[in-house]
């Protein structure tokens, strides 16, 4: 499993990622090379607070309105999530406790698989923060979890 790091401010994103990976027989603890993680996930709140990032990563997942955070960061690729049609991962609609996410362009996982453009359902997390839910979904997609498996996630628990 590729190493990843989550920069967050109490949103529970890392815990939700780890639970989802654990249910698939993956990691149960974060494994990250803090100086150069394969995947760096930046939460909405951490981006709003201007959190400090490591100097390099292979892929960064960040809110679309946080592009300024890329200054000084060495990354091979950047994937954005948010409400803009320019973001790679967006919310197309919300139905009760379910979000419909739209992958606006192809995404290449850390393992090299290509995920095609598509819409897919996501459970709404316990706090109702759709952008945090997109961050979790984006991280799982980049770590190789297929979109069709995201709908079955129980994101109601928190670590």
Walk me through the structure.
The protein is of the alpha/beta class and 159 residues long. It has one domain. It is 21% helix and 30% strand. The strands form two sheets. A seven-stranded mixed sheet has the order 1-2-3-4-5-6-9. A two-stranded antiparallel sheet has the order 7-8. Helix 1 (13-23) crosses helix 3 (130-142). The relative contact order is 0.19.
Write the layout of secondary structure elements.
Layout: E1 4-7, H1 13-23, E2 39-42, H2 44-48, E3 56-63, E4 74-82, E5 89-95, E6 98-103, E7 107-108, E8 114-115, E9 118-123, H3 130-142, H4 147-150
Parallel strand pairs: 1-2, 2-3, 3-4, 4-5
Antiparallel strand pairs: 5-6, 6-9, 7-8
Q: What's the total count of β strands? A: 9
Form type: globular
Oligomer: single chain
Using only CA atoms, what is the Rg?
A: 14 Å
Unreliable parts = none
Beta-sheet strand percentage? Answer: 25-35%
Helix content: 10-25%
SS element count, helices = 4
Distance between the termini: 21 Å
Q: Note the main sheet.
A: 7 strands, mixed
Strand order of the largest sheet: 1-2-3-4-5-6-9
Number of domains: 1
Rounded mean pLDDT score: 87
Structural class: alpha/beta
């Amino acid at each position: 499993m590729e190493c990843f790091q989550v920069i967050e401010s109490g949103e529970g994103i890392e815990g939700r990622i780890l639970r989802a990976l654990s249910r698939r027989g993956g990691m149960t603890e974060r494994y990250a090379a803090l100086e150069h993680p394969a995947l760096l996930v930046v939460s909405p709140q951490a981006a709003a607070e201007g959190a400090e990032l490591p100097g390099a990563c292979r892929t960064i997942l960040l809110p679309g309105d946080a592009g300024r955070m890329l200054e000084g960061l060495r990354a091979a690729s950047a994937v954005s999530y948010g409400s803009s049609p320019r973001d790679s991962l967006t919310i197309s609609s919300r139905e009760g406790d379910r979000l419909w996410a739209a992958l606006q362009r192809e995404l290449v996982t850390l393992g090299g698989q290509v995920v095609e453009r598509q819409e897919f359902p996501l459970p709404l997390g316990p706090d109702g923060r759709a952008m945090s839910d997109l961050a979790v979904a984006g991280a799982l997609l980049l770590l190789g979890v297929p979109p069709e498996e995201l709908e079955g996630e129980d994101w109601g628990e928190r670590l």
